[in-house]
Each structure stands twice: as structure tokens, then as C-alpha cells.
Specification:
The chain is 52% helix and 0% strand. The chain is an all-alpha fold. It has a domain of 29 residues. The chain is flat, with a radius of gyration of 15 Å. It starts with 14 loop residues before the first helix and ends with a helix.
Length: 63
């Protein structure tokens, strides 16, 4: 089993970064976070790209 390095606290993105990626403001409701997440999943799902090259690039980005 391959061990992954544990990131330091300074390597981790700030929690507000996660909200910004989803187009939300900190303190958004659970329902808003859920809707934004589902929208991103649909946008970046590999099956939504008909071109095989694009599909592979997306799969690599989400791994």
C-alpha cells in the first residue's frame, strides 16, 4: 500500500475557497451548497463530454 504525504495546514485551501469555487458566499445554506455541488457535478461529469480526449482530461482533473 502506497502512503500519501500528509499536507501541512498551510498547504490546505482556506474553507472560503470551497464556497468561492461553487459560486457561494460563506454561510450559505445546506440546500444552496447541495444545489451548487450538483450543478458542478453535472457540468464536469466525464460522460457529458462526447470527445474521448476531453473525457480523459476531465477524468484526470477529478481524480
Amino acid at each position: 500500500m502506497r502512503m500519501l504525504p500528509i499536507p501541512s495546514m498551510s498547504d490546505r485551501p482556506h474553507i472560503n475557497h470551497a464556497y468561492n469555487l461553487r459560486g457561494l458566499k460563506p454561510g450559505a445554506s445546506h440546500e444552496n451548497v447541495k444545489q451548487a455541488y450538483r450543478k458542478l457535478v453535472k457540468t464536469w461529469h466525464p460522460d457529458s463530454f462526447p470527445d474521448q480526449k476531453q473525457k480523459q482530461e476531465v477524468e484526470e482533473k477529478i481524480k
